[in-house]
Write a structure and sequence with these properties.
Order of helices and strands: EEEEEEEEEEEEEEEEEEE
Shape: elongated
Helix content: under 10%
Number of helices: 0
Low-confidence stretches: 1-24
Radius of gyration: 26 Å
């Protein structure tokens, strides 16, 4: 990941305080290229509606001074690089970043420092992100005739929605698109049940320009009854 070999800083011979330190985020200057010498795994979650990134690492080197955890924004983590954590305690192999935001992509890299404080190695790039919660879409469906289900829905309010799709699953078959609207809007649809249908599930989804889910309705279930033999 050559873009991340440039993310740390011109660290020079800076010596870190022994122990555990969680400094304020610091901007970066490009460091020299570094070999891979650590493994990093980060995972983002929502805790009480607050986004957090939990990072765990292992260092391959037997002798080293400290580690620094760097974070970059952007789709590939190449933007706005800052140092979010540092420690000289080799027993510490975890950090929780509570300064991330919903809807953004982040890339993390661990920089390993030598005993003199110089950059010695780096980890892999670990990308994380927390998507905004999907909007709850309004969908109502009811039996309009013996073999017809009529559905109506409202337009999504999410400004990122570019398409709305009504879908159905008949019996145990795969999901089938009944109708789509671009741009998304409220509407209605009459679903004619196919022969042999004994159970139907219907739902509504909204997606953005990249095809990512931004809204969905509850799944409505209808029992038609198995055909007589």
């Amino acid at each position: 990941m050559t873009r991340w070999t440039r993310l740390a800083a011109s660290l020079g011979a800076a010596v870190l305080t022994i122990g555990l330190v969680a400094p304020a985020a610091q901007a970066a200057e490009p460091p020299p290229d570094l070999p891979t010498g650590a493994r990093l795994a980060c995972r983002a979650t929502l805790v009480d509606s607050a986004p957090k990134a939990n990072c765990n690492w292992t260092v391959g080197a037997q002798e080293y001074g400290a580690v620094e955890l760097w974070r970059g924004t952007g789709e590939n983590g190449e933007l706005t690089r800052v140092k979010v954590f540092e420690t000289a305690d080799h027993a510490v192999r975890h950090f929780q970043d509570t300064t991330i935001e919903v809807g953004k992509r982040y890339g993390y890299v661990l920089v390993v420092l030598g005993p003199e404080g110089n950059p010695r190695a780096r980890s892999n790039l670990s990308m994380v992100g927390v998507a905004p919660p999907a909007e709850l879409l309004s969908l109502t469906c009811q039996r309009a005739a013996e073999r017809t289900i009529h559905c109506e829905w409202s337009a999504p309010t999410n400004p990122n929605a570019t398409k709305i799709t009504l879908w159905a699953i008949v019996n145990r078959d795969g999901r089938k698109v009944l109708t789509s609207l671009e741009p998304p809007a409220g509407g209605g649809f009459d679903f004619a049940l196919p022969n042999g249908a004994w159970g139907v599930r219907i739902g509504l989804t909204a997606t953005d320009a990249a095809g990512q889910l931004v809204g969905r309705s509850p799944v409505l279930t209808f029992t038609i009854g198995r055909p007589r033999r």
